[in-house]
Amino acid sequence: MKKWLSIVALTVMSLVLAACVSDDAGANSEDGGSTEEITIGYFPNINHVAGMVAETKDLYAETLPDGTKVNYQYFPDGSSFMTAIETGDIQGGLVGPGPAMNHFTSGAEVNVVAAGSTGGTVIMAREGSDIKSPEDLAGKTFVSPRVGCTHDVQFETMMKEEFGLTSDRIDGEMKHVTGKPATYASLFETKNVDVATVPEPWASSIEEQGSGKVLVDTQDVAFGETLPAAVFVTSQKLVDENPDMVESIVEAHKKATDFINENPEEAKQIAINKIKDITDQELSKEVIDRAWERIDFTYEVKEENLQKFADASYDLEFLKEKPDLTGLVDTSFLD
């Protein structure tokens, strides 16, 4: 009887161990291939074209172990993206630097391992609003994707430093509301907002539709040409426990960025197709061409540029404590 029980116990233990092995990252299938599964996230914005190219061209299959299943998840805002990184629902992807820094300073163990792009933020005024200069924005309503997001901080920094105007969030003269960038044209048409801080390609789309006009172009917005408009983020846990995976993910991202710069016309068509798939809105080639001129696609990232932006977030009271971004950026995977 004891011998029979021992056999049963050993059998159960073997099954448990087998289940543990099959669930672990990096487990191998019988034919030697990987049974890993990862999920990459990004937004349907032009700043995130590297994500669209990597998905369309299946570039992660070229760098990750054979058999790795790659899924994709699309996000409407940075807060939901960063939550997914922290919970492990996604293993990496592109997000604005604002949410990445905000979550890091709040205690999230995350790493910026590359940039995605720079530029692409445009300040638009509603057609017919009689707004001719940012100085006219006292008492006006502006929209950004989310409180404290990258585009919000860029706009509010510019307004405070150059025109002495702040939002009602800190008892200022401008009213702030939030909304998805794809809806900004309709918000202009219904006159619900006067000004929008807009990521591409939605700024160029608004221009084409005629519901808004450029008030401040990319190069004149705060941090417009130095700040990464998108950064590639993963968790510190993944960096510590599976650096090979992080290296493979970053390598695929680098390949996607190089493809964009070497094949801009094909990359533009990929962006048109993916944005339509995700948002059900088809952008014209003219819109994409215009948006492309405002963006530089690069994976190089400098910590000092992010620190300056974080300091601006603190000055605007988006952050409660003066930020120290030491440890956020890890460029070792770019070598």
From TrEMBL:
Gene3D superfamilies: Periplasmic binding protein-like II. It holds the Pfam family NMT1_2. NCBIfam families: SsuA_fam. GO terms for molecular function: ATPase-coupled transmembrane transporter activity. Its main location: membrane. Belongs to the bacterial solute-binding protein SsuA/TauA family. The lineage of its organism: Bacteria, Bacillati, Bacillota, Bacilli, Bacillales. Residues 1-18 form the signal peptide. This is NitT/TauT family transport system substrate-binding protein. It is found in: Cell inner membrane; Periplasm. GO terms for cellular component: periplasmic space; plasma membrane. PANTHER family: ALIPHATIC SULFONATES-BINDING PROTEIN-RELATED, TAURINE-BINDING PERIPLASMIC PROTEIN. Keywords: Cell inner membrane, Cell membrane, Membrane, Signal, Transport.
